[in-house]
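User: Hey, quick favor. My workstation is busy. Could you predict this chain's structure for me?
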Amino acid sequence: MSTDSLPSIGRMMADTVPMVRTLGLEFGETSTERAVVSMPDQSDYHNHVGGPHAGAMFTLAESASGAVVLAAFGDQLGRAVPLAVRAEIGYKKLAMGAVTATAELGRPVADVLAELDAGERPEFPVDVRIAREDGAVTGEMSIIWTLRPHG
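Assistant: No problem, here it is.
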């Protein structure tokens, strides 16, 4: 998928993933290598110290990873489904206000597709940084995704 498909990825995720709508996630830059997704400050999703709840930040980061995976492999949906296999998140600093997640694909698309073409079920990492509006990184997440072939 090209960068031109960027609005459609955000729309598609909002249409198919209820938590994207619930949290009001906003999709910015989306390419086959990187996706940027923001979550506005919403008191309904604050934690006990007044910032975004850890679960909301996890969902933000996972959604950003899903956006880059769809941009990179959306043209393969006819033969494989992308699935998150496991994730690890570290909360680094207090997050207050709006936060933005930047997800980056950890392997070249061609390498992942070569494994899929060879009949394998490839796994690949997506690394995500969550930052406050002042640029301070408040969290880091690593998600392992797979492309599970149909059938």
